[in-house]
Specification:
The chain has helices at residues 4-15, 20-24, 42-45, 86-98, 110-126, 136-169, 174-195, 206-213, 216-225, 235-245, 247-250, 311-318, and strands at residues 36-40, 54-60, 70-72, 79-85, 128-132, 258-264, 268-273, 276-281, 285-290, 301-304, 322-328. By secondary structure, the chain is an alpha+beta fold. It is globular.
């Protein structure tokens, strides 16, 4: 097969006078002989430059305590070796396939956990397999087929979450609202690129992905997304433009069962304060809400994507007291 990943790999190693065998020899065998070795990263995705390193991901039988890269420099090339235990990796893969995004319940920490799982697992699926034994080559091909959908779903949910945040922030912190609106459009464009064959899970290459797709309209939207307004007066019109642009890049996602979920952010507490309630976070910032307010006690607040929020809930969110996620109705 004419795999462009193979051509990128060959060009990289030839530039340093290396062979594939020499690259495979960089893989650390302290934790056992590799079951699967995959070349990944920006070089294999086609976005690397003269200073880019080559990421080599290996799977071994035993658990590995750390996934920090072990760097080597054969002939001046930088090779980053990352090793993962087979059970750890297959457990993550199993969790990914057994759940959908957004989930039925979501809380602080879940977004970061999902992002990390997608980043780690899809490196094996989107990379170039260099060697494999037993069932691992078939596992890698299965992962390659599944990765694009996970990535597209992730970016779709992020676009809706960030757009909701922008709407809530508009009246309170308009310049922050503008930044969140731009981030929502970037997430939508990432989804757009992923479903068109550019799923690499690194946001800094979005412009290059759209260039490679030859999508001039999406590139214009990208330029709009990375230049949010510099004055509060410009933000409402900017948010309206982003709102109008999003549907073109988000496809036909069935969002009818999606709910915005707000929960107390880590470090947030409620205390009585005369006739009101003092809400503080880490003792570094505080807000006051009425005793009879819907937000007078810690809880969970859920809204449909189009439903207005309680004003006090919105105010606490804008003061960084509440965390925002997206979940599906059970």
């Amino acid at each position: 097969m004419n795999d462009p990943r193979r051509g990128r790999f060959q060009r990289y190693i030839e530039r340093f006078g290396l062979t594939e065998r020499q690259i495979l020899d960089q893989v650390d065998t302290t934790f056992g002989e590799p079951l699967l070795i995959v070349a990944a990263g920006s070089v294999i995705a086609g976005f690397g430059n003269d200073t880019s390193d080559l990421d080599i991901y290996a799977v071994v039988e035993d658990d590995v305590a750390s996934t920090l890269p072990l760097m080597s420099y054969p002939n001046g090339a930088r090779v980053d070796g990352i090793t993962c235990g087979a059970r750890q990796l297959t457990d993550r893969h199993r969790e990914m396939t057994a759940s959908s995004w957004p989930p039925e319940e979501v809380g602080p920490g879940d977004i970061g956990t999902r992002r990390k799982a997608i980043d780690v697992v899809t490196r094996y699926g989107l990379g170039l397999p260099l060697s494999g034994t037993g069932p691992w080559p078939a596992w890698q091909r299965r992962l390659e087929a599944e990765a694009g959908e996970w990535i597209a779903d992730w970016h779709t949910v992020e676009a809706y979450r960030l757009h909701a945040a922008a709407g809530a922030l508009l009246a309170h912190k308009p310049l922050v609202a503008g930044i969140r609106a731009g981030e929502a459009l970037l997430a939508a464009l990432e989804r757009h690129a992923a479903v068109r064959g550019e799923p690499y899970f690194k946001g800094k290459w979005l412009g290059e992905k759209l260039e490679r797709l030859g999508d001039r309209k999406a590139l214009a939207a990208y330029e709009q997304a990375i230049v949010p307004p510099l004055s509060a007066a410009e933000v409402p019109a900017y948010l309206a433009r982003v709102t109008d642009a999003l549907p073109a890049y988000l496809g036909e996602a069935d969002t009818g069962s999606w709910r915005l979920c707000l929960r107390p952010a880590t470090g947030t507490s409620w205390e009585s304060f005369g006739q009101e309630r003092l809400v503080s976070r880490w003792g570094l910032r505080a807000a006051v809400v009425p005793q009879k307010s819907e937000a007078a006690e810690p809880g969970t607040w859920t809204y449909s994507l189009s439903e207005p929020w309680d004003p006090d809930v919105e105010a606490l969110f804008c003061e960084d007291m509440l965390w925002l996620g997206v979940q599906r109705a059970a």
